[in-house]
Amino acid sequence: MNTREMFKRAVAGGYAIPAFNFNTMEQMQAIVMAAVETKSPVIMQVSKGARNYANATILRYMAEGAVAYAKELGCEHPEIVLHLDHGDSFELCKDCIDMGFSSVMIDGSSLPYEDNIALTKKVVDYAHQYDVTVEAELGVLAGVEDEVVAEESHYTKPEEVIDFATRTGCDSLAISIGTSHGAYKFKPEQCTRDPKTGKLVPPPLAFDVLAEIEKKLPGFPIVLHGSSSVPQDEVDTINKFGGNLPDAVGIPEEQLRQASKSAVCKINIDSDSRLAMTAAIRQYLAEHPDHFDPRQYLKPARENMKKMYIHKIVNVLGSDGKLAE
Ligand code: G3H
Ligand code: 13P
Ligand code: ZN
Asked: Is 236 near ligand 1, meaning CB less than 6 Å away?
């Protein structure tokens, strides 16, 4: 299904739909198990990098398998969106639409404003012929956005959003209010340090900018990228068993909880899944040096990701129990 009704209900209901990236079968299985157990709608998203890694055709059929698997697990009417994350060209978006994706993102955020509008509108015009919904982006997140390199981040300008949404016809808008991609969202000099734990405490998101945007576009679906929280227990496990992730820091869950209650109706999480998977694998291999069957270490990895997904759905985004029927 596409995101239209899903987002309408999420905005009205004060919760957000989880958008989890997947590259592997274990991630896909964990996402489906978590969504079914919590009776949550879910967006399964695929990046250009995921298509390069796993093969576009395989991922497309994995998503079809995900729907069948959800039914097999007892969910009569699963609500699963297959979404392209950070599409960087019309051709990539078209390819996904032609392959059966129900939603695409065209990320023109690094382009000049008018070029972003023109590219987004071109994708919207094509996508809407097939009832595929389109996410656009305005404002630049810090760091590297997949293939889209942002040299400097800047918050979304509230004064631009009405013009942008009207002229492009996009169905949802990703904004920049201080989140960023990856496991190192803030430099130590942007944070304070908790004297007890020595851990970094990040600066708060720009909720004033979000409020301004909501005022300009009441009820319009807003998306937050770069919303992993970088759970410190997973970081500690990785570091304990041979990893090296000093000062990894994410968005505090309390702030995501707050954002979910607003017009933010899609929250993107990828890095937390990577951390959950890596922590479980590192621990398993360190404790079982004689094991070499991938099923032995991928099983706890899948369990750990499922636990994380359920936690996000139930305790952070609030999308549990929100299936239409
Ligand atoms: O926003 C980026 C996502 O985390 C996808 O990352 O391009 O490494 O697959 P990727
Ligand atoms: P994280 O790196 O914070 O998980 O963000 C993922 C994302 O925005 C995917 O588009
Ligand atoms: Zn993103």
From this structure: no
- CA-to-CA dists, residue 321 to 72, 313, 324, angstroms: 18, 10, 9
Check pocket membership of 85 for ligand 2, CB cut-off 6 A. Answer: yes
Q: At what angle do helices 56-72 and 25-38 cross, to 10 degrees?
A: 30
Q: Is the CB of 182 under 6 A from ligand 1?
A: no
* CB 48 near ligand 2, within 6 Å: no
pLDDT tens, position by position, for the chain (325 residues)? 999 999 999 999 999 999 999 999 999 999 999 999 999 999 999 999 999 999 999 999 999 999 999 999 999 999 999 999 999 999 999 999 999 999 999 999 999 999 999 999 999 999 999 999 999 999 998 754 444 444 456 899 999 999 999 999 999 999 999 999 999 999 888 899 999 988 889 999 999 999 999 999 999 999 999 999 999 999 999 999 999 999 999 999 999 999 999 999 999 999 999 999 999 999 999 999 999 999 999 999 999 999 999 999 999 999 999 999 7
Closest CA to 180 of 214, 205, 213, 198: 205
- DSSP tag of 304: H
Contact 276, 307 (CB under 8 A): yes
Q: Which ligand is nearest to the CA of 51?
A: 1
| Distance, CA of 195 to CA of 42 (rounded, Å) | 38
Give me 294's structure tokens.
């991938």
Please identify, by atom number, the ligand 1 atom nearest to the C-alpha of residue 182: 4
Q: How far is the CA of 180 from the centre of ligand 2 (A)?
A: 7
Residues tagged active-site: 85
322 neighbors 38 (Cβ within 8 angstroms):
no
User: Which stretches does DSSP call E strand in the chain?
Assistant: 17-21, 42-47, 80-87, 103-106, 133-138, 144-145, 148-149, 172-175, 192-193, 200-201, 222-224, 264-269
- The reply to whether the predicted model has a pTM over 0.90 is yes
